[in-house]
Amino acid sequence: MDSTILEYLKKEHGVAAPAAYYAMIDEWNAWRRGFYKPFHEFSETGASGFPVKRELYRLNMAKKICEDWAALIFGERTYVSARDDRTSEWLGGYDGLHGLIGSTGFMREADRLTEKAFALGSGAAILRLDNAVISDGRLRNGKDTILRFDFVDAQHIVPISVKGGKIIEAAFVSEIRLRGEDTVYIELHRLEGGEYVITNEWLRYTSDGVRRYDGEAKIPHKIRTGSRIPLFSVLTPNISNCIDENCGLGVSVFAEAIDCLKGVDLAYNNFCRDLKLGGKKVFLNRSLVMRDGRGVMYTPDDVAQQLFVTIGDGDITNEVMIKEHNPELRTGENADAVQHQLDYLSFRCGLGTRHYLFSGVQGKAQLTATQYTGEKQDLIQNTAHHRVNVQEFIEGAMRAAMWAGANIQKCGIDPDSELEVRFDDSYFIDSESERARDREEVAAGLMLPYEYRMKWRGESAESAKEILGSNKAELAEI
Predict the structure, then answer these.
(1) Strand, helix or coil for residue 195
(2) For site-directed labelling of 128, which of 67, 360, 409, 444 has its Cα 20 to 30 A away?
(3) Is 165 left (phi over 0), alpha (psi -120 to 50) or beta?
(4) How far is the C-alpha of 145 from the C-alpha of 23, rounded, in Å?
(5) Strands 297-298 and 290-291, how do they pair?
(6) CA distance 467 to 478
(7) Mean pLDDT on 413-420
(8) Long-range pairs, 236-240, Cβ under 8 A, ≥24
(9) Given this model, what pLDDT does residue 456 score?
């Protein structure tokens, strides 16, 4: 976050943003991108005696950690349904993959946002109402209004008010390049008189800071939404913020594991450098080195040579003519070091100690399925722990959309209908075994066929009953 923007928000709107916290977010983002300059760049003294800049070889595990958390939380498919059938179909269509969720690509983008939010500590989904009708500064009914979501990470979120650890009011900052000019778009979502009011501002950079200008004329400066619920939803990892407990922003999933990230890259760098420097070296007596007519030296085996240097100037009878040097690659020790560092990192980031296990390390045999299931207990518990926040985030975004669908688009849906978010647990549970067990329960009358279809095909109760038939719910039709 540009300090100029933070100063503007404080001066014009009284929003005191924690500037030091955004410096931490910048550091987390550098690790996420795989290159934190103060650590990954260093100097060595070259053969000439002058310093030479080098970069550590690196595995970029910060991003991998966050990719894996997003994949574990969402799985292959995550469904959202509502108790009210019409609302459920409006949200996800007949199979949970169409409707608003399908048309906006919400689950795909939420998956990507989760990866960034776990790296930078926070993310948000903001409901947009394209072609909205605004009269006298108020949102009005508009059947042509199209709903969509914008997704932003912690670098673009400025909390305004926080209650119970949740962001109630917020400013969202976007840097936009318009016709070759760098501009800043700020929207502030604040509660006034029990409803959310959105203030839109456009800024231009100047020599002494920023100044406001008209920007996009089609976006009014101030909009009274009429909504008592926020038209945004914030996502954070379910980790206590021990850096700034009251700021409302979350903390990176690897914030307390920076030393572990360094350990992984140091071990991997040593491995790669041993491989790079481990080629055969051949030393020749100077008497075997010839010069051509231009004074260029060449050796007897210049074709396909790897490396030759000359040693000694004395009598060739007293000198070794050719001497080989074969450096040790230390692959076993290096692989073991990398593996240990990965174990420390995965443990510290909540994935368990054996999430990244490479076969053949120290000659270890592969774990059996039973052993590995036991090793995954920390991972299972932490995944369920993080899903609490992800579920709240998804429900918050859907609540905002349902409010707009009912009050702006007039779709006839119930904005207060109870929501259910179903995550995919196939990574932790043998889905085929669970499916077979559910089929047996249907046959035994312990589960209704339409409940089976709702669970395994993401259909609403109404759609499942219609497909099965009102009086012929046979197992063969499942």
Answers:
(1) strand
(2) 67
(3) left
(4) 39
(5) antiparallel
(6) 9
(7) 92
(8) 236/117, 236/121, 236/122, 236/123, 236/389, 237/69, 237/117, 237/118, 237/121, 237/386, 237/389, 238/385, 238/386, 238/388, 238/389
(9) 73
Backbone angles phi, psi at 329, to 5 degrees: -80, -25
Please say whether the beta carbons of 389 and 381 come within 8 A: no
pLDDT tens-digit readout, 215-269: 666 678 899 999 999 999 999 999 998 888 888 899 999 999 999 999 999 999 9
- From the list 122, 110, 130, the residue with the least C-alpha distance to 244 is 122
Q: Report residue 258 as tokens.
A: 């920076």
- Cβ partners under 8 Å of residue 467, min gap 6: 453, 459, 477
Residue 257 near residue 345 (C-beta atoms within 8 A): yes
Integer Cα distance of 98 and 429 in angstroms:
26
On the CB side of 466, how many CA atoms lie within 13 Å of its CA? 7
Longest dimension (CA), the chain: 105
Token couple for 185: 């778009």
Tens of pLDDT, residues 338-372: 999 999 999 999 998 888 887 654 444 455 445 55
Q: Would you say 126 and 149 are in contact if contact means Cβ atoms under 8 Å apart?
A: yes
CB atoms near residue 473 (< 10 Å): 19
Q: So what's the pLDDT on residue 316? A: 46
Please list, in sequence order, all residues whose beta carbon lies within 8 angstroms of the beta carbon of residue 324, skipping any fewer than 6 positions away: 280, 281, 282, 283
Tell which residue, 440, 450, 446, has the closest CA to residue 472: 450
Q: Provide the β-strand partners of residue 324.
A: 282
pLDDT (average), residues 82-90: 91
Kindly report the pTM of this predicted structure: 0.79
- Taken as a whole, the chain contains a residue count of 478
SS (H, E, C) 24-92: HHHHHHHHHHCCCHHHHEEEEECCCCCEEEEECCCCCHHHHHHHHHHHHHHCCCCEEEECCHHHHHHHH
d(CA 116, CA 111): 9
pLDDT at 303: 44
